[in-house]
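Continued from yesterday's entry.
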Amino acid sequence: MYEGDVEIKPMEKLSMLQVRFCEDMNPLSAIVKKSPNLKWLDIHFSSKHIDSTMLTNQFIGKFFTNILPNLQNLRYFAISNCNFLGSISCEHLKMMSIRELSFSKCKQLDKFLVGIDKLVTLEDLNFLNCEDLKGRSIQIANLSALEKLQFSKCHYAKTPPKGFGNPKKPKILHMCECEALEEFPIGVSNLIALEELHFARCRALETIPKNFGNLTKLKILNMGECEALEEFPVGVSNLVAQEELNFGTSRTLRTIPESFVNLTKLKILRMFECESLEEFPIGVSNLVALEELNFGTCRALKAPGELWQLDETKDVAHF
């Protein structure tokens, strides 16, 4: 379906285009040119033809610089399995009004990330399985509309991306399944608008910084299966808005600070399979909002007698 071989008529009503196992940029470019009102574009390149001459930096570059910027109505753009972003910069997209930008299994992202802070309309930025991000600098401080940030399944990154800056808008941060991650990202504690923080299955993560307590608007904290974590976050008593807490399968977690019982808005507490945990802080009856409590398979834990004073608790797991 090359543009030179087949006449492609204008498709002005087309608003959504999903391409799977793309092997050739020519037909894709031809269709996109004729679809000026696209709002949603998802391109997944074929891994079988990843070295195809039709998927080189030159062809990808022309698509990003000459065709994509013309889609002024585009709001969602996702690209998967692309190894040819090395010669492209986000600068080419700055005049667009993209709300969601997603990269999955993409490589050679260094140059592309230059200028990402110019995408001022961006609300959701997602990197999934992008191993090239390890140790890279990502400047997001100027993304004033950003509400959701994801760096999930970057399995081999021992250090988080640098340059979180000081954005005050993000409400959700996902870094799940970064299994080699050893350090908590510097700057996360500056994201003072965060309401959800997900670090589940970061199995090598050992500590959380002291200034974690700055996240006073945090409602959901998910650190399930952080199997190397030994200490509960310092400053947890400052998380006064906390409603859901998941530390399930944190097998080396030994203690919970006494200040934990100040989380009077907590509704869900999951700490199953915390096999090294022996004591729960005195004052658990202060957790008057609890609706679900799960300490299943915490073999060393002795449940405090006052636990059963939580008359309003709807679901208490077996100990």
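--- second protein ---
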Amino acid sequence: MGWMQRPAVAAWLSGYTYGCAVVMPWEAGVDSPLRMFCDSDQQMMCRGRFAPVVHRMDPVAAQELVTIVVEPAFADSVEVTVQLFRTRAPDPRYVDDEGCELAAELTIDVSDTVGQAERPIAVQLYLGCSPIQVEVHSLTTNKESGCMHLAGGRVMDVRVLAGQLRQLKSQLLSEATEPEQLHDVADIESAMRAAEAGDELAVRKHLRAAGQWPLDVAADRGMGPAADALRAAQSLPG
């Protein structure tokens, strides 16, 4: 897959370098021969390259959308697996460099574009949301192929988050001993309903309003997605 990056707008700093696994021209003396293969045009290509979408400490705007465009490496490919990686390294060359971890993976059907000269696929990251949202769709057919949410390095479906917030709300109600803790319960319930509705911004707003107590309970009770989402929302600027 080739790639093209679009410009970004500024607001706060990214904690990770995010990028897609792509193929790029193989460079003798730099890339290992084990990474080399020939594409449909018989060009020597290098597999496993890291194509950055945003670098660690890059400024990121609220609700910012960054798009990376990829294409199948072979003209007869009927499906493409899009992989998103993250690392704290500023400029990794390969997706298997030390410290790189798989954050999301989605296999998409591109059989309806076989035989076409250009088969671009847009991978769109909404970096200013919590958790980060990833959408993939074909630019040839304009058909959406999938949607993912990231938190703490894991793929998190918004329905999973809603379920975890429901569990967290019940746990908080069973442990609440002070009147002010009921405000936290109300914030978690509002975030849960926003997650059920797929309202990303409202989820972030209500999780951010919740205090430290819900985060501590979620972490202590092993509610990873809920704890990740709370942690991410509360670390964002107002």
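Residues 2-11, 151-156 have pLDDT under 50 and may be disordered. The two ends are 38 Å apart (CA to CA). Will compare against the first tomorrow.
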